[in-house]
Amino acid sequence: MNILYDHQIFSEQKYGGISRYFAELLKAFENKEGIKTTTPLIVSNNHYISECSSINYQSFLPTGFEQSLDLSYINKINTQYYINNADFDIFHPTYYDPYFLGLLKDKPYIVTVYDMIHEKFENLFSSADKTPENKKKLVENATKVIAISESTKKDLIDIYNMDPAKIEVVYLGNSLIPTHDPNFEIPMGVKKYILFVGARYEYKNFTTFIKAAKKNLDDAAELSVVCVGGGAFNKSEKDLMSDLGIADRVFQFDLDDTTLSLYYQNAELFVFPSLYEGFGIPVLESFACDCPLICSNTSSLPEIANNGAEYFDPYSQESIYLAIKKVLEDSNRRKELIDNGRQRLAFFSWEKTAQDTKKIYEDLLV
């Protein structure tokens, strides 16, 4: 069984959940019988595929190419060549560009849908963004669709009026391995802190969270908020924290995975206030690092976290504040969340993701 993937996400992302998902799949398939994978890449700066021995690529532009040349265009031409000439059974694109639809002839293809954020929060995206249009076209023409949660499957059915039988749910896994450093210290003299991880787009709900957390900081003079990832605070965020009087107690760091695990392990708790997630990999990261999880009661998060989280209404500052307060002050609840999270994590692994995906491929070829 030969599976052809494409270049898309490895051309666009240096880091990111989608490219990590495909890299983990490719790594797992390298050790499985009955499946061979091909991923045509000429050049990529993606961090995760360096661990995939099945991909031959360059991490820099070859001599003679202009640095401004679009990496995606170079790789797309190469992928089109493979679609036209390679021996493969199933095509699995890594994102939603429909460039290949006229090339596949009678070959089946599977598309993975990660979330329906563009469709549910269309006001947050530019009208020039073709993602919703392209996704709909691919989903409608796909032989099979993989959704990364039951929540995402439900959204696909509700928004596209899809036949549920066309959709298979395959959960993701966790890549964050806890590391231990007895000398670990956070800069700026931070000791006790609430952790926020990831981008701070509007649907990630950072503004509502930080307004709520201001009350928790007022309750405990030694407490801070530490944000990891998402880049430095912008002017609007700085102004907000200054207006709230907490600018000297909220910090931002960009970290590698090894250091991130230490930030999870040493946090009082991790808050995930997103309005919408297709899966929510940070849920599993917090479980892996024995960090108590407090999160929104929306979309996929209760499905993935189950009894491993203290939940709140992400639209209510008071609800967020009270959930944080409860876990900060109740050591028994903290221990219960850590224990439940550790047990829940056992339901998820990249090995299981690969096994379930391989079965979908096999069933398609029967």
TrEMBL record:
Residues 191-344 form the Glycosyl transferase family domain. The keyword Transferase applies. Residues 15-173 form the Glycosyltransferase subfamily 4-like N-terminal domain. The keyword Chloroplast does not apply. It holds the Pfam family Glycos_transf_1. One of its GO terms (molecular function) is glycosyltransferase activity. Keywords: Transferase. GO terms for biological process: lipopolysaccharide biosynthetic process. CDD domains: GT4_MtfB-like. PANTHER family: GLYCOSYLTRANSFERASE WBBK-RELATED (PTHR46401). This is Glycosyl transferases group 1 family protein.
